[in-house]
Amino acid sequence: MNKKNKNKSDDKENNKIEIEYIPEEKQEEKPEGVKPQTESDEKGKEKTTEKDKKEIEKLKKKIKQYEEENKKLKEQYLREAADKDNLRKRTEKEKTEFFKYALSDVFREIISILDNFDRALEKKEESNKKHFREGIELIYKQLQNLLKKHGIKPIELEGDKFDPRFHEALMSEESGEVKEPTVSEVIQKGYMIYQRLLRPTLVKVTVPKKK
Description:
It contains 4 helices and 6 strands, in the order ααααββββββ.
């Protein structure tokens, strides 16, 4: 009996179906909120890359354009700076030459008067004193007319009052007969050129006597 039971149990063991456990493949864990990439995403990336390339090309063109403009502006600035420097030098030269030769016409007229002085001095011994004096007076008048022509006139004294704007006291003396500084003698004439003082009149001044 035992033997039969044992055989039966062996048969059952032999008839058992062996089932092998096959573990499930682990799916790759992805962070929360990250969606899996799809084909549309890949296309979007390609489009973005192309767009970036176009933007970069545009920026490169703009940079090149700005560099060319900067170069032109720099060249223009250097040209203008050189022109200004040349203009300054030319102006200074013209100014120097102007002051050097501005009185050429005046000196030309003075030379003509000098010629008359030369002639008068050459004939001094041949002519009498009266004719010589008349010749000198004529030359003097000619010189006065020349000065007047160029706005130069002698300072006219208005009374005897000393005026420091036009007079320069070369010497002075005290007197009880005057109450204020008074011009007693003109030592050297003064001159005006138009409305400006060219040379003051040198005078001798009489001042009130100190008590």
